[in-house]
Amino acid sequence: MILILKKGVTEDQVEYVLKKIEQAGLKPHISKGADVTVIGCIGHEDAVKAFFEEAQALAGVDKAIRISKPYKLASKEIGKEKSIIKIGNVEIGGDKIAIIAGPCAVETLENITDIAENVKDAGAVILRGGAFKPRTSPYTFQGLGEEGLKFLGEARKRTGLLVVTEVMDPRDLDLVCRYADIIQVGARNMQNFRLLQEVGMVKKPVILKRGLCSTIQEFLMSAEYIMSNGNESVILCERGIRTYETSTRNTLDLSAIPVLKRLSHLPVIVDPSHAAGVWYYIESLSLAAIAAGADGLMIEVHPMPEKAYSDGAQSLKYDTFSKLIGKAKLVANAVNRNI
Ligand code: PEP
Ligand code: MN
Fold it and tell me: Around 57, how many Cα atoms within 13 Å sit in the side-chain half-sphere?
């Protein structure tokens, strides 16, 4: 439920409304606009229902409106049109499209620093690289763990790029937070609710990837798990979903971009690499994603894809990546954005 406060509401009245929300067992989320203040009341459905009549009658409250969607904080109905997430000197969700690039997995210090320098030169602002890898087979490379995080930290220091890396297990969260600027929750863990709750309690932005077979509503409910635990800096990432098509690893759901933008105020980025699974399609999908309104791209890059420890087939070489960014700038300009 949201409470729209009256114009000219006093500070005392706002305080009183906040107190009443808490007494009803709900959490208030206040957003002060230019002329109207809106307070979201978040909590158990029964508590919201019980509080509805009383809330409408409180001094200073103009009207109470139930949020119709099952996700509340992630919904535009909470009274937010667009969230811009600031991380260091990078903004995601504003006019500028954020380019995130790097290898699938952190391999060696030399490799990650070389990739960091090259993707930075091409226009990336955030370095990606997995240290804890969610591999389908337990007999393939699982990531370097803490050593990989240290290498990422070193690449960050040398280039000034921000770093995003995946956390798969709540037990690794503290460690990952020591090195990462942004936490990634991967597709396979999109509905690992305990992990989502834990990630909701840290003060780092989160890139939440859409599950392999998840609907948009399920995706937004997972964002809600993170947000309702206190962390509202969630960036949604469309990375392809499973369909009957086998020419590509997954099918990039381009429709998810305008749909998510219509339903939610959260930024939406696109990972064309895990969608395509084949490097050849990454450029087209990236350009299409920008045209459809994506706030960022996350792309796998490797200097020698044939030698990559994982996902070589979908990794771009430096020159291909750099050419893609050149074209992406033109598409961004065509839709009044920039890179
Ligand atoms: C990744 O980004 O490294 C990854 C494993 O992606 P996804 O979770 O989308 O499969
Ligand atoms: Mn990968």
Answer: 4
**Nearest one of 232, 221, 292, 206 to 263, comparing CA atoms:** 221
* Protein residue with its CA nearest to atom 6 in ligand 1: 186
Say whether pLDDT at 32 is over 90: no
What does the pLDDT look like over 283-322, one tens digit per residue?
Answer: 999 999 999 999 999 999 999 999 999 999 999 999 999 9
pTM, full prediction? 0.97
Mean pLDDT of 35-39: 90
Nearest-CA residue for atom 3 of ligand 1: 104
Measured in Å, residue 58 CA sits from the centre of ligand 2 at 52
The ligand 1 atom nearest the CA atom of 184: 2
Q: Whose CA is nearest to atom 10 of ligand 1?
A: 187
Q: Tell whether ligand 1 has an atom less than 6 A from the beta carbon of residue 210.
A: no
**Nearest alpha-carbon partner for 163 in 225, 216, 101:** 101
Selecting from 3.30.70.1140, 3.40.50.300, 3.40.50.1000, 3.40.720.10, what CATH number does the domain 2-66 have? 3.30.70.1140
Fold held by 85-334: TIM Barrel (3.20.20)
Residue among 126, 136, 188 whose CB has most ligand 1 atoms within 8 A, to mutate = 188
pLDDT of residue 97: 98
> Nearest Cα to 66, choosing from 51, 80, 81?
51
User: Which residue's CA lies nearest to atom 9 of ligand 1?
Assistant: 187
Query: Are the C-beta atoms of residues 298 and 270 closer than 8 Å to each other?
Result: yes
